[in-house]
Design brief:
The complex is a heterodimer of chains A (about 110) and B (about 110). With about 110 residues, chain A is mainly β. Chain A has strands at about 5, 10-15, 20-25, 30-35, 45-50, 50-55, 60-65, 70-75, 85-90, 100, 105-110. In chain B, the strands form two sheets. In chain B, strands 2, 4, 5, 6, 9, 10 and 11 form a seven-stranded mixed β-sheet that branches. The chains are: A mainly beta (about 110), B mainly beta (about 110).
Chain lengths: ~110, ~110
C-alpha cells in the first residue's frame, strides 16, 4: 500500500502570504492528486499530475517523481482559500483500486 | 448536471440496524468508489467497482457490502451497524483508474448509537 504523508497538518497565515503544502509518498505512481475539502465538507479535485508542474489561477502543483514528492503552492493567499487540502496517490501504485489519502492540511488564511 | 449524488445526507442508526447508502452518477463513468472519513485520518477506501456488475474490496471492507447492478449506481450496505461505523461516507466516480480525476459526492454523515 502506498503511504502518503502531508505537512504541515495545520497552517495559519495572513492574507497575501505565499503558501506551500508538501506531500510525500512511498510507492512509485502514475499520477498524484490534490484535492480541496471545503468547510462544508464537499471534496473537489484541484489537480491530477504525473510530472512537472500545473497551474490553475493562484494554485500551482509540482511533482518530483524521483524523490516521490509533490508540493501545492498558493500565491497571494485569500481567506476564501481556507480549507483542508488533501494529497492522494494510487493505493497500490497501479491505480485500479482507488486512491490512498494523506490526512490533509488544515489551512486558515486570516484577513 | 448533478455529477455524483449521495443519499441520504444524514442518518442516525441504532447498533444492529441495517441500512443502504446510495450513490448515483450521471457522468457515465466506469469506476466508482466508497470511502470513509474519520477525524484525524485520511479518507480510506471501503470498496470499489471498475464497471457494472463488478466489485472489489478496498482497505477497510469489513462490515460493509456493495453492489453495482447498474452502471450509474453504487450501493453501500451495512447489514448490522456498529458504533465503529460512525463516520462520513463519500462516494466518488471516475472515468478510469488513478490517472483520472475522481468526482465526489457531498457525503453522508452516519451516526451509530
Amino acid at each position: 500500500k502506498n503511504e502518503v504523508e502531508q505537512s504541515p497538518q495545520n497552517l495559519t497565515a495572513q492574507e497575501g502570504e505565499f503558501i506551500t503544502i508538501n506531500c510525500s509518498y512511498s510507492v512509485g505512481i502514475s499520477a498524484l492528486h490534490w484535492l480541496q475539502q471545503h468547510p462544508g465538507g464537499g471534496i473537489v479535485s484541484l489537480f491530477m499530475l504525473s510530472s512537472g508542474k500545473k497551474k490553475h489561477g493562484r494554485l500551482i502543483a509540482t511533482i518530483n517523481i524521483q524523490e516521490k514528492h509533490s508540493s501545492l503552492h498558493i500565491t497571494a493567499s485569500h481567506p476564501r482559500d481556507s480549507a483542508v487540502y488533501i494529497c492522494a496517490a494510487p493505493y497500490s501504485g497501479g491505480g485500479a483500486d482507488g486512491l490512498t489519502f494523506g490526512k490533509g492540511t488544515h489551512l486558515i488564511i486570516q484577513p | 448536471n448533478a455529477g455524483v449524488t449521495q443519499t441520504p445526507k444524514f442518518r442516525v442508526l441504532k447498533t444492529g440496524q441495517s441500512m443502504t447508502l446510495l450513490c448515483a452518477q450521471d457522468m457515465n463513468h466506469e469506476y466508482m468508489y466508497w470511502y470513509r472519513q474519520d477525524p484525524g485520518m485520511g479518507l480510506r477506501l471501503i470498496h470499489y467497482s471498475v464497471g457494472e456488475g463488478t466489485t472489489a474490496k478496498g482497505e477497510v471492507p469489513d462490515g460493509y457490502n456493495v453492489s453495482r447492478l447498474k452502471k450509474q449506481n453504487f450501493l453501500l450496505g451495512l447489514e448490522s451497524a456498529a458504533p465503529s461505523q460512525t463516520s462520513v461516507y463519500f462516494c466518488a466516480a471516475a472515468r478510469g483508474s488513478a490517472k483520472n480525476i475522481q468526482y465526489f459526492g457531498a457525503g453522508t454523515r452516519l451516526s451509530v448509537l
